[in-house]
Backbone:
């Protein structure tokens, strides 16, 4: 089975419950993490520890990608760019210090999160944080992979994306949505974990790609719902 989870944003409880609910066997199933593991939520440190440990134990089946929030943290650590601090970085740093009292251990986990790849690909899908721009090379200089909005991504011609990905749909997150739709080329799995909106319900999604169903941890209720991906 193939699973995808993205934009966890410090939601450790929901992460644990979703992985348990889906009964993922990490020795045989594949899990891809789409970035933005940190900020907003209260337990970014525990989320990073959980996911790094899974990647280390199951390197053939568990894969993590960098998101724009990890990139902001990297820019802060490297050059003192304060953008990260205004997007939850101060609380995240305090939580890291609590989770990893040892400075060397804390640095190890933070450096890991800051240096993850931007793209993962298997035999069926391409995975990124925000999307892909078919008119730009897939490399570290292409910031669209981490930052492009859903509006920009979904305005791109399907044919151009399929040419780039060799007919593989792109599974991603970054822009919160209320329901998950699949247009045959793009699948946005970000349900806005630890964000607030008066118009939309928010939660954390674990996508099961084989059956195109997803499990939603509703932070308002603490419960998990199962839904089908809608197609159009």
Residues:
């Amino acid at each position: 089975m193939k699973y995808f989870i993205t934009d966890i944003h410090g939601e450790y409880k929901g992460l644990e419950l979703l992985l348990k609910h889906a009964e993922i066997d990490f020795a045989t199933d594949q899990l891809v993490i789409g970035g933005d593991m940190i900020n907003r939520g209260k337990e970014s440190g525990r989320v990073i520890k959980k996911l790094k440990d899974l990647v280390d134990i199951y390197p053939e089946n568990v894969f993590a990608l960098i998101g724009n929030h990890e990139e902001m943290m990297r820019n802060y650590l490297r050059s003192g760019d304060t953008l990260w601090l205004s997007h939850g970085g101060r609380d995240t740093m305090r939580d890291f210090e609590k989770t990893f009292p040892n400075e060397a251990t804390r640095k190890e986990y933070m450096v890991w999160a800051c240096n993850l790849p931007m793209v993962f690909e298997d035999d069926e899908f391409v995975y990124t944080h925000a999307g892909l721009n078919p008119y730009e090379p897939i490399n570290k200089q292409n910031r669209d992979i981490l930052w492009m909005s859903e509006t920009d991504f979904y305005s791109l011609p399907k044919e151009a994306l399929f040419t780039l990905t060799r007919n593989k749909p792109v599974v991603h997150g970054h822009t919160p949505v209320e329901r998950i739709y699949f247009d045959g080329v793009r699948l946005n799995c970000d349900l806005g974990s630890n964000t607030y909106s008066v118009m939309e319900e928010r939660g954390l999604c674990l996508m099961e790609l084989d059956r195109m169903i997803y499990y939603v941890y509703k932070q308002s209720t603490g419960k998990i719902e199962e839904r089908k991906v809608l197609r159009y």
